[in-house]
Amino acid sequence: EGRKAALFRGRAQRNFSSRSRQKQQWRRPVCGHRAKTAQNRRKTPLLSSSCLQDIGGFCSVNGSCLCFAVKFSNGQVKNTEQLDIRLFRHTDRVNPRKKTRRIVVAETDRLAYVGSNFGPGSLQCNNLCRYFVGVLDKRTMEMKVQRAQIFNLQPTIPGETEARADESENKSYREKVDALIEAFGTTKQKRSLSSRRLNEVGNETLQKAVARAASNVIDEKGLEVLQQEVADSEAQTEVALFLPPCNKSAEKPEDVYPFDGILSQGELESLKQVGEKMAVLTSEDLLNMRKDGSPETVLKHLEDLPKDPDARSRQACCAWYLLFLIRLAQQKKLNRKLCGNDCPRQIYNKAQKAFTVESFSKGRVKSMVPASMLVKIASHCLALLLHMGDQTADLTLLHRDLNISENKMLEVAKVMGLKLSRQSALSKEESGLEDEHRMASLEVPLVRYERRPDGRKRKKMT
Predict the structure, then answer these.
(1) What share of the chain is helix, strand, coil (3-state, %, to 5)?
(2) H or E stretch covering 358
(3) C-alpha distance from residue 57 to each of 76, 145, 155 (Å)
(4) Which of 453, 451, 385 is nearest to 239 (CA)?
(5) For residue 213, what is the enclosing H or E element?
(6) What is the pLDDT of residues 255-299, one digit of tens each?
(7) Using alpha carbons only, how large is the chain's radius of gyration in Å?
(8) How far, in Å, CA of 284 to CA of 290, rounded?
């Protein structure tokens, strides 16, 4: 019984394997190609007659026959026999991208249709999957399966097609993004796009208007005058923050740099108490101040105070404020004991806002004088000296007291439009020897100096 069961199982397995071989031979296609799996068959579907018109042709590619089928984007063609269809291929057969490019042209008496397998108008279905066309021979009733490509033919008008192609090529990246927003953007994006276009001004119109206005100004004033105005405006913008208030159209010299722009009436009133102490100083007190290192510019004016009470009080107040500014430039920091314990609150607040910047050091906020503010202090001291000395100031004494170079002091005087001169004076430090001092005086109209080029020539080393 065991042997009979084993023989029965062997016969059943042989019969099953023979039947499966017969089924596999039956599934082979008639045309002789090997059968493909279900997955490959899904990737290579046959063309549907409902989506294509019955127009096509054959061409030879590398010895194999290639079928092309066309469809019209604007509908079905009634008389297909009247179409003159031509197929063009690229002349470059070496480049892998160009050698497969094809163009199909279908011409009629009224219109021409063009389709290609590359570019924006091509169908992407040729790249995603493969298509085949079955050709039936009615005499032998045999069908041959050929590889195919689909072309989408669109009507072309010579003038409009070239203009559209040029417009699309000349569009910038921003214009292409705007076109995408118009087609597929959200409501918010479309709203922002429309508002931006409403606020835009045509670039060409704006450029033409600016060029027209510039040419009119050049014709009226001349190129040299405009260049001089530009140089003056640049110089004014550079030094406007460092100079006291200036009135260049003033008729009197004392009104060019008004005294109210240096010391207001309220600030001058606050200096009366300290000014009274300066007015009663004796020659011995002045000698002690010179020994202590007080500025020579201040001592010179204290030695020549006027006898009139009002003028003496005004001059003494100006001398105290001048001493305050020079001490501020020397110490490069602001504190309440800069000129004693009786510094007016109003003057302290003015100096803190106008001549210092806040700096954090060692856990405290301090008011420091940067290097750029030294020029501002020098210009204010020079303007104050002009009012104290009948529109004349000694630049040599001032730059020594401020601890700045003579060239920088001269540049400040030139920017302020002062007239420069030289004057010999006795030097007490060198036992009565003559010392040449640079003087500055204010005259109306102001002196205009030519600006030097920024780059200086270096001396060659020999």
Answers:
(1) 50, 20, 35
(2) strand 357-361
(3) 18, 14, 20
(4) 451
(5) helix 203-221
(6) 999 999 899 999 999 998 888 888 888 889 889 988 888 889 999
(7) 49
(8) 10
Identify the residue whose tokens are 């040419």.
215
Distance in angstroms (rounded) separating the CA atoms of residues 166 and 460: 60
Phi, psi of 439 (to 5 degrees): -110, 155
> Residue 322, Cβ neighbours under 10 Å: how many?
21
Structure tokens at 337: 């004991």
What is the rounded distance in angstroms from the CA atom of residue 430 to the CA atom of residue 427?
6
Whether the CA torsion 208, 211, 214, 216 is positive or negative: it is negative
The pLDDT, as a whole number, for residue 231 is 67
Span 8-49, pLDDT tens digits:
444 444 443 444 443 333 333 333 333 333 333 333 333 333
Burial class (CB in 10 A: 0-12, 13-18, 19+), 82: exposed
Pairing of strands 64-72, 142-156: parallel
CA angle 342, 348, 349 (to 5 degrees): 145
Residue 368, strand partner residues: 333, 357
Cβ contact 82:108 at 8 Å: yes
User: Do 297 and 394 contact (CB within 8 A), yes or no?
Assistant: yes
Place of tokens 């995603």: 128
Q: Whole-angstrom Cα distance, residue 112 to residue 291?
A: 108
Long-range contacts of 348-354 (CB under 8 A, 24+ apart): 350/267, 351/324, 351/325
Cα(328)–Cα(279) distance, integer angstroms: 22
**84 in helix, strand or coil?**
strand
Task: Give the tokens for residue 316.
Answer: 């003494």
Q: Are 420 and 439 in contact (CB under 8 A)?
A: yes
- Residue 335 is classified by DSSP as -
pLDDT in tens, 297-342: 999 988 888 889 899 999 999 999 999 999 999 888 888 777 766 7
